[in-house]
TrEMBL record:
GO terms for cellular component: plasma membrane. It holds the Pfam family TauE. Belongs to the 4-toluene sulfonate uptake permease (TSUP) (TC 2.A.102) family. Signal peptide: none annotated. This is Probable membrane transporter protein. It comes from Oceaniferula spumae.
Amino acid sequence: MTILQPPKPKLWIWFLTLAGFYLVWSWLVFHDGQWNEVVTHWPMAAAMAIGSYAAGSTPMGGGTVGFPILVLLFGESAELGRDFSFAVQSIGMSSAAIFILSRRQPLAGAMLKGALLGITIGLPLGIFLVAPWVPGLHIKIVFAVVWGSFGLLHLWRIGEIASHEGMTDFDEHWDHKAGFFVGLLAGAAVVSVSGVGVDMVLYTVLVLLCRADLKIAIPTSVVIMAYGSVLGIFTKLAFTGVQPGVYGNWLAAAPVVALGAPLGVFVVDLIGRKPTLIVVAVLCVGQLVWTLVQESQSLGVLGLTGSIIAVVVFLLGFEKLRAWGAVLGGDDVLAQTTQSSLTGTNLAAIQEDSSSK
């Protein structure tokens, strides 16, 4: 698998784009008399100080914090939370991505290129054909279940995930194809509905199937979500419009996340990724519990049961990816311990296919 790691950092590119952003933001706020909007929405700016750090240091975008704060804490609609996720990440995640690229951090090149192509097709299709048919309650549940499952995965497997070094070397064509389907499906089914998610899905494939080092998997996930956020917000602005209230919250939070996300990229190299991932995983599980309790009457027994079953299905899927990754990576001990999770899968065929490559 190609690892893009050019030799010399060029941080002046990031500083230049950051200066350009603050000039535009200042013009929008002071020339157009929007300072009152910034002051009115200061709680979101404060919340996104934490969210942007998580966006740069973990595979979970700033919308992972912004969505539940707007929807669960502030009582806003799920549609507003989704559109705000697109808007705020288009600044924070983009700033972090430019910072990553300027520092010449290693990326999973072939899989990232495939995912970029996939989400370019999948996200607009999802915005036009999927998202309009998903009710606000279901948006909340999709977000809660996906990120709750992701949090549980890390609380259970963080030691193993954090121990990976390098990546399992597959054929680049296979990597590109896998990335394409991740971008296409996640863009259409998850990102279009919740405003976040392709970063988490690509990261999961990288760490469980490809057994990638966190220093490769997390920057790759940041770059794909940055692109997805920019694509999402421009698609909505051009064709569907965004929810009222997005602009005011964006004005308040944007100058914070433009620095906070790159700060997360930098600081996590000093303190390590494992502690931050554990904290964010706890938050992901917490918002799942909070959502299910808050929406228990609307969901009813059937809805609550279905949500819990969905979490279990996600966790079983994660375990299956992990077992495949062990087989393809040649870890016989791990493969034997996880064989029971691959019911109906021909492990010998997979191993033979891996050897042939």
